[in-house]
Structure formats: C-alpha cells, structure tokens
Write a structure and sequence with these properties.
Radius of gyration: 21 Å
Order of helices and strands: HHEHEHEEEHHHEHEHEHEEH
Strand content: 15-25%
Number of helices: 11
Number of strands: 10
Bound molecules: adenosine-5'-diphosphate, magnesium ion
Structural class: alpha+beta
Largest sheet: 6 strands, mixed
Length: 349
C-alpha cells in the first residue's frame, strides 16, 4: 500500500522492495507461492484445521531501542510459535509486518533477520509475506499452524479433578530482567540460563503436539503463571487449588515464578489418570513437567495457593494488564510485575 507521504519516502534508500528482497525473501519448504506476489498461496494438509494467531512487539512497550536485534528477531517469531504450541498445533507459515525508521541500518536489519530466520528454521516455519513501512520500530507476526481436526487445545475445557501442570522453569525470564535492572544479582551459570530464557525463549512445540492427545486445556505463560492460569479457570468456569513443589520463600524469586511472564512455558490441565503418562512424557522430551495442583469446583477463576503445610498463601493479584489503571494497580500491589527494563518483554508496558 502506498503511504500518504510516498514522495518523501523516495528520498530514502534502500527502497521498500530492496529491503524485502534483501532481508525477507528466503526459500520456502512447504509453500506454493511465497514472498513477492500480492498474496501467498498455501495448501493446508487435508483433514487438518488451521490455527491462526497474531502478536505485536512495539519499541518502548515491549522492548527498548538498545535491545539486541538478533534476540528480538528470534523472540518476535518465538512468541508466536509458542501460541501454536499452546493450541497443540504444528507451526507452518508466518507473515511479518515491520515498521522501521526512515534510515534503517543494514547491520540492525541483518541481525534482526538472522535471529528471525534462525527461529523459523529451527521450528520449520516458512515466512510467506508481510508488509514493510516506515515509522517507529514495531513488528507484527501472524502465524498459521495445523492441528488434527477437533484436536486443538483450548482454554475453556479444563475439568474438575484434572491435574494442573507447568513445563520448564517458569520465572527465569523475569529473574533475568530483575538482574538487568539491578534488583538482584544472579551468579553463573544461573544467570546464563535466565538470560537465555529471556532472550531466546524456546517455544514448547513438541510438548504441545504430544499434549493435543492428552491435555484437557492449555495456555502459554506470557503474562505470569497465576494470571494465565486464571484465564483457563475463568474460561472453563472452574477453580484451582495449587501446591507448588519447592515454592521459593516470599520475595523476588517467588514473585518471578508466580507473576513473571515471558518464559513461554506451557501451563496445562490433564485428567488425573494421565499423571503417570505425563511424567513419562517429561523424560521423553527431556523437559521438566511439574504438577502444581488440581482443578476444583468453585467460583470461576478462584485460585487458592497453599504452602507446603497446606496454609492459604494466595497473593492479592496475579499478573499484569496493559490497560490496568494506576489506581487499580495501587489497590492490589501483591505480585506486581517488575518495572520495565532495557530488554524484550512481550506484555508489560
Ligand atoms: P502490496 O503492495 O501488494 O501489498 P508489497 O509491495 O507490500 O505488496 O509487498 C511485496 C511482497 O513482499 C508481498 O509478497 C509481501 O507479502 C512481501 N513482503 C513485504 N514486506 C515483507 C516482510 N517484512 N516480510 C516478508 N514479506 C514481506
Ligand atoms: Mg503491502
């Protein structure tokens, strides 16, 4: 689409088309027609449903100007692939809308594209189109995935009696952020693990695919464990009782575990009879899967967190909301997300 100031735009080199050719036109693996025409052509596998999801990353809201572009490229696609994992889908195709300042530095875009395509290659995603315009730096990825008909994992289908599980080590990304902000000091090798979680989140695609035949509901944790569990509970009209093994003492580590987002681990529910199968799955995937509680009947969304002795230690609020007013935030300070820092953070303003 031409912009309202397309005459002024001509002053800047390279052109939009040179940028697209140089950075975003790559060979595809499973696409009939990719970048270069008015639209892309894809042929979904017969008998499978398409899952579609979009996520934006905006400078100043989700990342700061000095964020490493290669990490940003990776993360911008990884957070979208994570949504496919949470639906139990195989990610297949993506489009990339990108707004960059008038004089994009080649180095910056080179690094961004390297990170983006490293993630695309790792997870078998074809970039099939997008849009490139000038403006404040922002990225918007739309991803398409495939899932066997009727098999997609939803948020609304958890059942009373189900076990609640979390993958990986949630809280690491938030801890890395706290370290970068000088609110804590992490020692190696923990620092390296936490920084990797923050900058190179690993979408749990293999887990999601296995869970499509096993879980009753799932979500990927972007806003914080308790906040995202809250979405499952509300949409499924159930409550939960949590008892998290080795829950850290009250303080930063506990806050990061419960309310830090950005790890992109999968939080899911499954029938209690599947507990043993899920433990085996953890070994097969070499990925920690921890049972953190069970779904109980009660008011939709109610969540009770107990300590090891069974005492209720439920924090007052569970996560972060882009549009939460400062007044409401002040009313409920417990488990508040950490203030913004100089790195990527998907859903914290
Ligand atoms: P149109 O004017 O028809 O909208 P464009 O000139 O915007 O087409 O884009 C030309 C081609 O380049 C299209 O196939 C489009 O999908 C692709 N494209 C544009 N920007 C990107 C991008 N950032 N990443 C991938 N493909 C892109
Ligand atoms: Mg266009």
């Amino acid at each position: 689409m031409p912009s309202v100031s397309s005459v002024a735009k001509k002053v800047f080199m390279p052109s939009e088309f040179e940028l697209i050719d140089r950075y975003f036109k790559r060979p595809t693996q499973h696409t009939l027609l990719g970048v270069g025409d008015d639209g892309a052509l894809i042929a979904p596998t017969p008998g499978r449903e398409l899952v579609v999801s979009t996520d934006m990353l905006v400078e100043g809201t989700h990342f700061l100007a000095e964020t490493d572009p290669e990490s940003l490229g990776w993360k911008c696609l990884a957070v979208n692939i994570s949504d496919m994992a949470a639906m139990g889908a195989q990610p297949r195709w993506a489009t990339l809308g990108i707004t960059v300042p008038p004089a994009p530095t080649f180095r910056w875009l080179d690094d961004f594209a390297r990170g983006f395509f490293a993630c695309a290659d790792e997870f078998g995603v074809d970039l099939i189109g997008g849009d490139t315009t000038r403006g404040p730096r922002a990225f918007c990825v739309t991803i398409l995935g495939e899932v066997a008909a009727g098999r997609a994992l939803r948020r609304s289908t958890a059942r009373v009696g189900d076990s609640i599980w979390i993958s990986g080590r949630p809280g690491q990304a938030a801890l890395a952020l706290a370290h970068l902000q000088g609110r804590t000091i992490l020692d190696q090798p923990r620092l390296a693990d936490c920084l990797a979680a923050l900058h190179r989140p690993q979408p749990r695609v293999a887990l999601g695919l296995a869970l499509s035949a096993l879980a009753t509901a799932a979500i990927d944790v972007s806003d914080g464990l308790l906040a995202d569990l809250g979405h499952i509970l509300e949409q499924s009209a159930v409550a939960a009782r949590l008892q998290i093994p080795q829950l850290p003492d009250a303080g930063l580590e506990r806050d990061c575990l419960l309310a830090g987002g950005d790890d992109y681990e999968l939080l899911f529910t499954a029938a209690a009879e599947s507990d043993a199968r899920i433990a085996t799955l953890a070994a097969e995937l070499q990925l920690p899967l921890t049972r953190i509680g069970e779904v109980v009947s009660g008011p939709a969304g109610r969540l009770v967190l107990c300590d090891a002795g069974g005492t209720d230690i439920t924090p007052a609020r569970h996560g972060y909301d882009h549009f939460m007013s400062p007044a409401r935030e002040a009313e409920s300070p417990a488990c508040k997300a950490p203030p913004e820092a100089g790195t990527v953070s998907r859903d914290k303003p």
